[in-house]
Design goal:
Helices cover 43% and strands 20% of the residues. By secondary structure, it is α/β, with parallel strands linked by helices. The chain has one domain (2-272): 3-Layer(aba) Sandwich (Rossmann fold). The protein has a 9-stranded mixed β-sheet with strand order 1-2-3-5-4-6-7-8-9, with helices on both faces. The relative contact order is 0.16.
Length: 273
């Protein structure tokens, strides 16, 4: 079924054990966007002015985020990546370009490693292939808070969001609205946190060599969550990849530097065309 949302359609597709909400804008070769932790498809809102002029842009809500249902979560990136491939099946996209931000970056990396034949070009943005011994307890604690409910989670998540938008304070209020709505049922957030925790013991690094698609890994100069070093590791592990570091941006690249990010993405896609 579908319903009007602004000038776009929100579409619900049944993918395995969940209903996935996705939206699309523009025309041209398809480009699927995967959002970050606690967000939904609206996290890409500021890039659309550029991307949708040249591409058919498809953005969806991850399992248990936004308006997508939770199903039977198992706390793994393999499941989240499988959801993405199931959505590609529903959209009848045999092979397409994938871009993922932060958590979404790990999802597209996992999908490209597990299903290399489905990925045409790959764009991981402000992400990491591993979770260190300091970050793992951070995710565990937030999963625990989410298990207690929004009353426990939201004050901490609001603080985390303010920290991420320290260099773009004018964007905080709008983005917090998205996050508050997306995590109204916090179980999807908890599931994604547990998937990230697993990257401590089971990093993606050994599987990056399975990726066959050309890749542009995009990092941000002032990203304290997924620093440029994390991008260097990913780019070194993918056979046909290069790294681009966007200057003067913190972690929230799609919101802080949407024009620069969109230009880098489109230049790469046009070049590989």
């Amino acid at each position: 079924m579908s319903g009007r949302s602004g000038h776009n359609f929100d579409v619900r597709a049944t993918c395995r054990d969940i209903d996935v909400i996705w939206v699309e804008w523009g025309r041209g070769d398809p480009l699927v966007l995967v959002h970050g932790l606690a967000d939904d498809h609206r996290a890409w809102r500021k890039t659309l002015a550029w991307l949708a002029l040249e591409r058919r842009v498809i953005a969806y809500d991850l399992r248990g985020h936004g308006q997508s249902t939770l199903g039977a979560p198992d706390g793994t990136l393999t499941q989240l990546a499988g959801d993405l491939v199931a959505l590609l099946d529903a959209l009848e996209l045999e092979r397409t370009d994938l871009c993922g931000f932060s958590l979404g970056g790990t999802v597209v990396l996992r999908a490209a490693a597990d299903h290399p034949e489905r990925v045409r070009r790959l764009l991981p943005v402000a992400t990491s292939s591993r979770v260190g011994r300091v970050a793992a307890p951070w995710y565990e604690e937030r999963a625990r808070l989410a298990d207690e409910g929004v009353g426990a989670l939201h004050p901490v998540l609001e603080r985390d969001t303010k920290q991420q938008f320290a260099d773009a304070t004018g964007e905080f209020a709008r983005h917090w609205t998205i996050r508050r709505q997306s995590t109204a049922d916090p179980r999807g957030f908890a599931n994604a946190c547990r998937a990230m925790v697993r990257l401590h013991a089971e990093p993606l690094d050994p599987d990056l060599g399975k990726i066959q698609a050309p890749a542009l890994v995009i990092s941000a100069e002032r990203d304290f969550l997924c620093p440029p070093r994390a991008g260097e590791i990913i780019a070194a592990g993918i056979p046909d990849a290069r790294l681009e570091v966007l200057p003067a941006s913190g972690h929230q690249v799609p919101v802080e530097r949407p024009a620069e990010l969109s230009r880098a993405m489109l230049a790469f896609l046009d070049e590989s065309d």
